[in-house]
Amino acid sequence: MISAVGLAKTFKTRRGEVEAVRGVDLEVKAGEIVGFLGPNGAGKTTTLRMLTTLLEPTAGTAIVAGADLRREPAEVRRRIGYVGQGGGTDGACTVAEELVTQAELYRIGAAEARERSQELLVQLELAGLEDRYIKTLSGGQKRRLDIALGLVHAPALVFLDEPTTGLDPQSRANLWSHVRRLRDDLETTVFLTTHYLEEADALCDRILIIDSGRIVAEGTPEELKSRISGDLVTIEVDDDPAAALTALEGLEGVRETSTSGRVLRVVVDSGGQILLGIMRAMDAASVPIASIQLARPTLDDVFLTLTGRSLRDDSPATANAAAPEPEAAS
Ligand SMILES: Nc1ncnc2c1ncn2[C@@H]1O[C@H](COP(=O)(O)OP(=O)(O)OP(=O)(O)O)[C@@H](O)[C@H]1O
Ligand SMILES: [Mg+2]
Prior knowledge:
- With about 325 residues, the protein is α/β, with parallel strands linked by helices.
- The chain has two domains: about 1-225 and about 310-320, Rossmann fold (3-Layer(aba) Sandwich), CATH 3.40.50.300; about 230-295, Alpha-Beta Plaits (2-Layer Sandwich).
- The chain has twelve helices and 14 strands.
C-alpha cells in the first residue's frame, strides 16, 4: 500500500538547512495499522506530508496506494485520505455541511455524499450532531469529525497525524476503537503518527520508530519489546543463590544473570517461553523458589535503549496545552 525508498526533506531556513527527514524507507501492507512513533520534531509530520503530496521530497521516491508520488500526485491524492495534525474544519459550518462540502471536493454526487456522510456519522458516533456548528463540538467529537472528513471518499489508505493529541484518556481509547473498526469493517489501511507509547502499543499492528529524521527500529510492538530489551525474570530463592545460578547456566534463551542477595535477575529472550524451563531447571537442581516474577519491557524502554532518551515527556497537561499547528489545506 505504501512503498517508500530514501525519502528525505531538507528545509532551507534563514539560519541554514534543517534536515527534517534523512532517508526514510518504509513498507506498509494493505489492511495494516502502522504507527509512526517519535518525539517532537522527529520528522513524522514532514514524512506524512511528503507521502500525501503536500510537500515535495528533496530526495527519494514512493508508491502510495498504487500511484507514483512524483509522477502521479493527483492520483495519489484521489486515492488517499489525510487528517492533519491540527485538523482543518471550519467552525462556522455545521457538521453535515462540512461533510458534504468535502465530498463535493472529491466530485462525489449530492445523493451519494449524503449517504456516505450518514454512514460515517454512525460509524464515528457522531449521529445526531449533523446540524451542530463545528465550533460547539467537544474535542473528541471534533477529532472524530476530522477523521470522518478524511474518509468521505472511501479511500483505501488513510493518514492520520497525531489523531488523539489533546484528547482525554477515555476519548483517546474511544478513538482507537474507531480506528480499529475502520480497518476491520472497511479494510482501510491506516498510517498514523503518534508520540504516545500506549497508543502505538495498543493500536498498531506494526510500529516504525523515527528519531531525528531516521527510522531507528521497526516491528510489531511485541517484536520491538522482545528484540531490544528482552524480558526480565526476577527469582527469589530461599537460600543458595549460587546453586540457582548454576542451574540456569546454559539454559537456552537466558542472556544475562545477576544476583543481589537471594534475588536473581535473569534477562531472557522471551519470558513467556522460558518461565517453565527456569522452574524445571531449579527443580532439577533442588533449589526451592520463593517467588518468581516476569516483567515485560515497555516501548519506552525500547526507545530509551535506541536513542538514549525517554519518550515519556508527554504528560497530559503538556499534550493538552499544545496548540494545534496550522495545516495547509490538501
Ligand atoms: N517548513 C519548515 N521549515 C523549516 N523547518 C521545518 C519546517 N517544517 C518542519 N521543520 C522542522 O523539521 C523537523 C521535523 O518536523 P516535523 O513537523 O516533521 O516533526 P514531528 O515529528 O511531526 O513533530 P511533532 O511531534 O512535534 O509534530 C523539526 O525540526 C521542524 O522544526
Ligand atoms: Mg507532527
